[in-house]
């Protein structure tokens, strides 16, 4: 899952590595992606929803979770792990809470459905909280949390994910990267959007390093025996990602606890799979033998600002809060202090203007997908 504020800074050499090859206009990628989803049987409305969710990652500079993953979603559909025509429904609710069964639909469709329920409940009673079972990978958490902003609400989104992470003092992979996003509106300032994995680095960072044949920084991963390593391919050799903090001395127990919280909220509340039994994203990886729940789990929340204080008053103070951090004196060698959401907003402005850059290998993969589905490719 995405780790945007922590990982995706403009100027980061890892991400500059992605700024190459051909740029494609957003609308061209939107039309292509929507057609792909329609080809597997998604309705026009569902294809729109899924495409908006998927491409929000590319627009915000989180390339590992955008159109580069499109073939992965289609492979899940091919092996019947994704239902292109889901009957998404509420299976339990109170005035402020609900549990949603995603019917094995694309998480890109299920999560916005659930977030809209949370927003409607918040409109009625102040806050809304929805836990989701029987879903799939939902893209970036920010896309769903930010749905609340236009309603003068704080949005919260999180999801569990397939086990790639060893808890502190373990060699077993027990948790996913389990991202959390909190989005809060401001007045004249851009909204606060903190979207982060609960690991030291998101898996997408490893994928970038693998393309570069480069090593990881110390503290990102461990080998199969639990020793620190800088091998970017170590997950393929039995190793694991490390919780936020890296090791006990640097606070990995806190990252482990955060990842566990996401798992509990997303899966144990909803009835989804949890811990090492969460289904893997790659279609070729066998499903866990034990399935204590249904599919992948999410947790979405919306909090009406005026359930606590007048919205305009809150947003005025958010502006003041944000300006305070922007005016904080940076350390030597750094230009400015960033507020969560700044890097992604800068990516969005640049990419809507100049197009979305795709690696040649991604374009080739997408054109291969288009040929398989008997549709036009990317030129």
Would you write up a description of this structure?
- By secondary structure, this protein is of the alpha+beta class.
- Helix content is 37%, strand content 15%.
- The chain has helices spanning 4-7, 13-16, 26-39, 44-59, 70-78, 107-125, 141-145, 203-212, 252-268, 311-326, 342-354, 360-372; strands spanning 22-24, 89-93, 97-101, 127-135, 153-159, 180-184, 192-196, 221-222, 228-229, 240-241, 296-304, 356-358.
- The strands form three sheets. A seven-stranded mixed beta sheet has the order 2-3-4-11-5-6-7. A three-stranded antiparallel beta sheet has the order 9-8-10, with no helix packed on it.
- α3 crosses α4 and α4 packs across α6 (107-125).
- Mean pLDDT is 93; it is low at 1-11 and 13-19.
Question: What does the average pLDDT come to?
Answer: 93
How would you sum up the major sheet? 7 strands, mixed
CATH topology: Ribosomal Protein S8, Chain: A, domain 1
Note the run of SSEs as H and E. HHEHHHEEHEHEEEHEEEHEHHEH
Give the % helix.
25-40%
Task: Catalogue the unreliable spans.
Answer: 1-11, 13-19
| The CATH H-level homologous superfamily | Malate/L-lactate/L-sulpholactate dehydrogenase, NADPH binding domain
């Amino acid at each position: 899952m995405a780790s945007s504020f922590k990982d995706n800074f403009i100027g980061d050499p890892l991400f500059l590595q992605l700024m190459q090859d051909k740029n494609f206009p957003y609308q061209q990628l939107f039309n292509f992606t929507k057609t792909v989803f329609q080809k597997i049987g998604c309705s026009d409305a569902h294809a729109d929803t899924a495409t908006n969710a998927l491409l929000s990652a590319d627009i915000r500079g989180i390339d590992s979770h955008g159109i580069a993953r499109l073939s992965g979603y289609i492979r899940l559909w091919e092996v019947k792990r994704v239902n292109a025509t889901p009957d998404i429904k509420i299976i339990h609710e109170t005035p402020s809470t609900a549990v949603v069964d995603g019917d094995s639909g694309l998480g890109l469709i299920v999560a916005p459905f659930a977030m809209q329920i949370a927003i409607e409940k918040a409109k009625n009673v102040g806050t809304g909280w929805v836990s989701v079972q029987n879903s799939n990978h939902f893209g970036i958490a920010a896309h769903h949390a930010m749905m609340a902003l236009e309603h003068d609400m704080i949005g919260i989104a999180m999801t569990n994910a397939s086990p790639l992470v060893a808890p502190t003092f373990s060699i077993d992979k027990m948790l996913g990267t389990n991202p959390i996003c909190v989005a809060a509106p401001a007045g004249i300032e851009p909204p606060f959007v903190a979207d982060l994995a609960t690991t030291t680095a998101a898996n997408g960072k490893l994928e970038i390093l693998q393309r570069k044949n480069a090593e990881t920084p110390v503290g990102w991963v461990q080998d199969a025996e639990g020793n620190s390593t800088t091998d970017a391919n170590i997950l393929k050799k039995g190793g694991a990602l490390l919780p936020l903090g890296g090791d006990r001395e640097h606070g990995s127990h806190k990252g482990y606890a955060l990842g566990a919280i996401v798992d509990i909220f997303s899966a144990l509340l909803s009835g989804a799979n949890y811990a090492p039994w969460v289904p893997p994203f790659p279609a070729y990886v066998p499903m866990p033998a034990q399935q204590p729940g249904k599919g992948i789990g999410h947790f979405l929340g919306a909090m009406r600002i005026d359930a606590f204080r007048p919205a305009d008053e809150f947003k005025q103070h958010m502006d003041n809060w944000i300006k305070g951090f922007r005016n904080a004196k940076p350390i030597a060698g750094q230009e400015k202090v960033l507020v969560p959401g700044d890097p992604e907003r800068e990516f969005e402005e640049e990419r809507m203007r100049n197009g979305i850059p795709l690696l040649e290998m991604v374009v080739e993969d997408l054109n291969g997908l288009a040929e398989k589905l008997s549709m036009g490719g990317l030129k």
